[in-house]
Design goal:
The protein is an alpha+beta fold. Helix content is about 35%, strand content about 25%. Helix 10 crosses helix 13 and helix 12 crosses helix 13. The chain binds flavin-adenine dinucleotide.
Length: about 425
């Protein structure tokens, strides 16, 4: 087999130049290693560039306990990693390299200059340029070279690239057009790792009944959404949502999607109840309707409702509650008002499915955490193999948590791998 490379006495191979791999490569190099960073796409950091709608929500200002809670029960795996490199350290890392940040609503941290996710990638490129890191775009890794429970390198384009440690940071399976198409888990499985079944997460959902299709394109702010599983209220969220031809998307839906996907997979009945007027209780809403209809008593209902609902929603609302568009506001009966009130407080949509990896912000599931040392990110099954980023079975809500996890696990994997080589060197 052809081989690239020579003595490899301090060489570390990093697979994947995303958030985790870029950080791992730089940290390993700063700690004394010679690094080969293999990236299958033509450019590094494709996913970072599109993250946060091109703004890149880098991290979150939440304190450690709240931050960890966003990862659910697997959050505890990250504790030791975050104790060493957390949001403050990440922000210092960027500030020292000239990237100013700004903290917004919900503690979300972004580059200060509007729309500059690409600046985040540039920080890494400049940093790595000054270090012994050989970044090789267009290099797809197809396998790990293993020898008696020890990793010896990787197989890349038919060549063996040898190294004393390998950091796998090839991402999950979501947005495969960015390069992360599930190779990370496949490569880890080749080294004996078990994979917690992967599924799309932070993903739009499909709904039945045709209501969403009629409202497709409509963006609502400040709505409440209740999630019902087998008829029981399971969770509630507040914020923005977007009607799509097939169902619903937007921040509130993505936040609730993890529970929905799990419930659908378990065969449960799932539905969502949208409260279009969460700031008004039934009594206040009734008073508002009475006032509006008195003021607009000569107007037909399709005009009178415009003060209360977006125009696209008015005909749908009238159909749903069985009031004719031409009916005058002043003629609406108490029973009709009750039906209207009921609909405004509870638009029910049955959830029939969820979209695929192509549209999922992150991948749930991944390399089993029980097989990875949380103090170093080293594999417990294969000496010299380290794992970082979204290929691990960690996933969080939107808000900057996922990128911080990728940066922090990459930081720890890079440092630990280099330290282990130093300790091992004669
Ligand atoms: C649209 C979108 C918006 C997002 N916005 C945010 C946000 O604002 N804030 C946030 O915290 N999170 C956000 N996320 C999630 C976040 O971007 C990811 O969790 C994070 O980038 C994962 O980093 P990673 O390094 O583990 O994987 P990736 O960024 O996926 O990087 C993996 C890299 O490995 C490469 N690779 C894969 N296979 C191979 C192979 N065989 N050989 C060589 N290279 C390979 C890939 O090409 C890729 O470059 C967003 C995700 C998406 C899809």
């Amino acid at each position: 087999m052809p081989q690239c490379g020579t003595a490899m006495s301090s060489r570390i191979i990093v697979v994947g130049a995303g958030a985790a791999g870029l950080m791992a490569a730089g940290q390993a190099a700063e700690s004394g290693a010679e690094v080969v960073l293999l990236e299958k796409m033509a450019q590094p950091g494709r996913k970072i560039r599109i993250s946060g709608k091109g703004r890149c929500n880098l991290t979150n200002a939440a304190a450690l306990p709240d931050f960890l809670a966003r990862f659910g029960k697997n959050g505890r795996f990250l504790r030791q990693c975050f104790q060493q490199f957390f949001s403050l350290e990440l922000l210092r890392f960027f500030a020292e390299r000239g990237l100013e940040t700004v903290t917004e609503r919900g503690g979300r941290v972004f580059p200060a200059q509007e729309g500059r996710a690409a600046d985040v990638v540039d920080v890494f490129r400049h940093w790595l340029d000054g270090l012994p890191v050989s970044l090789r775009p267009g290099s797809q890794v197809d396998g790990l070279l293993l020898d008696n429970g020890q990793v010896r390198g990787v197989l890349c384009g038919g060549n063996a690239v040898l190294g004393r440690a390998v950091i796998l940071a090839a991402g999950g399976s979501s947005y495969p057009a960015t390069g992360s198409s599930g190779d990370g888990c496949r490569l880890a499985a080749g080294a004996g790792h078990s994979i917690v079944p992967i599924r799309p997460a932070l993903v739009p959902v499909e709904t039945g009944g045709g209501l969403a299709a009629r409202l497709a394109g409509l963006h609502l702010r400040n709505v409440g959404v209740r999630l019902l599983i087998n008829g029981k209220r399971k969770e509630e969220a507040f914020g923005e949502l977007l009607f799509m031809k097939y169902g619903l998307s937007g921040p509130v839906i993505l936040t609730l999607s993890g529970l929905m996907v799990d419930a659908l997979e378990a065969g449960s009945a799932v539905s969502m109840v949208i409260d279009l007027k969460p700031a008004l209780d039934e009594q206040k809403l009734d008073a508002r309707l009475l006032r509006d209809f008195a003021e607009r008593r000569k107007e037909p209902m399709d005009s009178a409702l415009r003060g209360l609902l977006p125009a696209q929603m008015v005909p749908v609302c009238l159909d749903e509650v069985g009031i004719q568009a031409a009916r005058l506001a002043g003629e609406v009966t108490a029973a009709e008002r009750r039906r209207l009130r009921g609909w405004l407080k509870a638009v029910v949509l049955p959830v029939t499915g969820y979209r695929g990896f192509k549209e999922a912000i992150i991948t749930a599931g991944g390399v089993n955490l029980a097989e990875v040392d949380p103090r170093t990110m080293q594999s417990k099954l294969c000496a010299g193999l380290y794992l970082a980023g979204e290929l691990l079975d960690i996933q969080a809500d939107t808000g900057g948590y996922n990128l911080q996890a990728a940066f922090s696990t990459g930081w720890l994997a890079g440092r630990s791998a280099a330290a282990a080589l130093k300790a091992d060197s004669p």
